[in-house]
Amino acid sequence: MNKLTLLFTGIVLTFGSAWVGFVAYPVANLANMEPLPDEETGGLIPPTLSGLAVAGQKVYAASGCVECHSQQVRPDPLTTDIAKQLGKRQTVPRDEIREHTPFLGEYRIGQDLSNYGARETDVAAVHRHLYSPQLVSPWSNMPSYSYLYQYRKIVGQPSSHALQGLTGSFAPKAGYEVVPTQQAEALVGYLLSLNQNYPLPESPEPTAK
Amino acid sequence: MSNDQSSQTDTLSSAERSAIDSSVASPVILFFGTSILWLLLGSIFELTSSIKLVWPFFLDGLSFLTYGRTSIVSVNALAYGWATPAAIGIGLWLTTRLCRVPLAHHKLLIASGIIWNLGVFVGVSGLLIGDSTSIPLLNFPAYSTHILLLSFALIATWAIVTFFQRQSGPLFVSQWFLVAGFFSFPWLFATASQLLVWNPIQASAQSPIAAWYAAGFFNLWLVPMGLAAAFYLIPKSIGRSVNSHHLSLLAFWSILLFGAWSGTSRLIGGPLPAWMVSVGAAAGVMMIIPALAVALNLHFTLEGHYAPVAWSPSLRFIVSGVLFLLTTWLLSAINSIPSVNSVTNFSDLTRGLNLLGYYGFFSMIAFGSIYYILPRLTGKEWPSSCLISWHFWLALSGILLGASALILGGLIQGFALQDVGITFRSSMDFISPFRFCAALASILLVAANLGFALLFAGLLWSTRRSGATPTLIAVREENSQEPVAV
User: Fold this and answer.
1) CA-based nearest distance B308→chain A, Å
2) Measured between beta carbons, which residues in chain A are less than 8 angstroms from residue B253?
3) CB contact under 8 A, B212 and A62
4) In angstroms, how far is CA B270 from the centroid of its own chain?
């Protein structure tokens, strides 16, 4: 192997083979997916995201949530994700078409969030969790997202958006309140939109054994 | 021993060698110096993230220091601030030496070095203010990756031109690796940036491309550059030639082929066609071939000449680096088997393997190479053999403690995450003592990096000319016949 041209050709062929398989193939076959029509409601599957949730995706990315939280349900019987009720069926490419970037995640330092919106529907509870994770689960190592909240003195009437139920060391001082910023509202909107409980033909729910 | 010329390191006279070395000095020192600053910064952020995993109240409630940002700053500062410029510096020096031409256009290289560091600085600032793309290893926002690609295009063009101007003769094995690395990285980085960051394609198609990039960054960029250094410096230091031409050939082509295909194995069960995961798993298991080919080839080269590893700093670091590469690839091969991967996926075991590969293999090889290269560029010797010894043992113990804690803990955590009867909270309780050990290991690594930075600064500022004896970290045996170029 003493000729540079031979070396180059070999590198292009080996490297190019993987490039065809893992880059060209997905670009040609996976990058043009359409939502399916929902015959029951006349809407789309997966449902279109609200504007609030789209804004929340950006906050999710900016905060680095994907560093600890995965968003993928793996199939039976390879894994126990479905038995552990992370979701009712496997996550497939069509589930991601609403996202800008797929937040698949590499770690489960925190819980999987693919169906967070199916487990949790209470906006106030999610705010409490983001502001003071250890209030909700004392054993949690989740960081506080208090920087998405405004800690301010109550002037006149208390805000109707202010967080309720903050107790112990997390409670604001008398005469103060904790109010979510727009970013916090958007993040909660996005988290509650995470719900893959719609039927997709390519990912049937496994039948009970 | 093979008589093939591709196994001989070089046949330069010492005068030619020092002319080439001094021509390359300023850009290489620029790349090394800035990379060491990023190494320090990156490892401090890594330590911060490790502490936060154990004790979430550490520096809590600040947007730019939340765990999600410190951890990506550490990964990206280490990958693009430390590893890549260090690889470029080693690559430039090796390219001029092996092509036997003094460096031309060194202002172009200095400019690209400055542009590169500007790009990393812009990227890290972007991550701190929350502009991450959330793609692993490609977190830098689009406005900084344009700068990085511009800089690298200049460097790669220079490298390819130098290869075509080289003095004729057979290509040495390190040169294969250099061409592969300088050629693959821009291809990887441009493809992934264009499809995932600049003009992102639909999210449903992005995950295999991201996995392909992450595997390629290690197997097709850092590994070729690190092995180019190992295949040159190990034989050079002990005055022998590379043992087997055929094993070199096997290692080179199997790294390129299987390394490029191995990325998708970790997306097991994920939202992508099943054949991609199967191919990735098969390629991941096949990485046993280059692992054994590299390790055996270098072992046969060193056989009977292991003694200098005790006293030569560069050999000691490089040989440890090769052993860590062997470990990384063997463990990754086991981890690629689907029944194993479905358990360990999402656990801290992945962090352990990354530590072994990026720090154990690449950083150790880079340290060893810099210990060899820098005295030859500056004509000065390393100021303290004691500090070099501390650097080595701190780095080695940090890697061993951190990787073993994360791999063992990751296994336990993985089984807990998989077991239907065990709650998520218990999986966290199981892993937390191991994360505590990993945080201790991060302290050791920060100390090691600090020691290295002090040595580097000490060498640049010192006035001690060489011609005196080289700095050794152990007493050289008097009756030894080893022709060591330390």
Assistant:
1) 31
2) 10, 14
3) no
4) 28
Strands A149-153 and A44-45: unpaired
Q: At what angle do helices B173-192 and B245-261 cross, to 10 degrees?
A: 10
CB-CB under 8 Å, A30 with B204: yes
Please give the biggest Cα pair distance in chain B.
71
- Give the pair of three-digit tokens for residue B410: 């990751």
Q: Say how many C-beta atoms besides its own lie within 10 A of residue B478's C-beta.
A: 5
Q: Which of the residue ranges A23-32, A87-96, B4-13, B444-453 would you say has the lowest mean pLDDT?
A: B4-13
Q: Is the CATH number of domain A48-193 1.10.760.10?
A: yes
Structure-block tokens of residue B193: 């940036």
Within 8 A of B68 by CB-CB distance, chain A residues are 63-68, 143
CB contact under 8 A, A143 and B60: yes
For residue B479, what pLDDT is reported? 46
Residue with tokens 């405004």: A150
- Nearest Cα of chain B lies from the Cα of A136 at a distance, in angstroms, of 13
pLDDT tens track for B431-451: 999 999 999 999 999 999 999
Q: How far apart are CA B328 and CA B208, in angstroms?
A: 22
Among residues B130, B239, B263, B243, the alpha carbon closest in space to that of B188 is found at B263
* CA B175/CA B177 separation, integer angstroms: 5
Chain A touched by B279 (CB under 8 Å): yes
Tell me the ipTM for this assembly: 0.93
pLDDT digits (tens, 9 = 90+) for B208-232: 999 999 999 999 999 999 999 999 9
Give B346's strand partners.
A107
CB pairs under 8 A between A and B: 228
In this complex, the residue of A32, A67, A148 whose CB is nearest that of residue B67 is A67
Is the distance from CB of A64 to CB of B68 less than 8 angstroms? yes
Whole-prediction pTM value? 0.94
Give contacts of B195 with chain A, Cβ < 8 Å: 23, 27
- pLDDT(B480) > 50: no
